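Collaborator request log, item 7. Partner lab (contact: R.S.) asked for a structural prediction of Pycsar effector protein domain-containing protein to inform their binding assays.
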Amino acid sequence: MPEIGEPVRLVQEHEEPFSDGKYFEHIKKVNEIFYDQIKISDQKAAYIFTFILAFLISSTEGRGVFTIERYREAVLINICASAALALASVFSIICAIFVILPRRSAKTTTLFWGAWDSHRQGFTEAAKRGDLGYLFREYLDNADVLSRIARDKYRFVTLAFRGLVVTVLSYVVLLMVGNA
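Returned to partner:
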């Protein structure tokens, strides 16, 4: 890294930016971080799913919001809180499932096992030429794919978490008002 006041070396016309190993290492690290973020989003979704499911199975109040009898002669606050709890818990479970569902991308690289057959020949040809640019582009393209997948997953994690918050708040309201 240049010192303060020292001129920064620019890439020459004939030179590729990845000829400096720092860029190559950086894009590899970006791929690792994005992949970790995808795994973390799956874990968060699994926690939310497990919590909601355990709550619905173990709680009489939780199970009760799915019975019609609960709504027949209840007061408005109980009806609203029960409906909110039922809708929010189902919403959270569905969003958590959407997080965990496999993702496909129109763009693939050699780093995705499902596309290896279509990329194998290009990879071996680049290896024969010693084409470092090919590797750099593969990591760069893979970072694009992983970024898109992570964003999609986190959008559903956020929705599932918001549904969880509404579920908990609705449950607290039901506990506070009791059988009013």
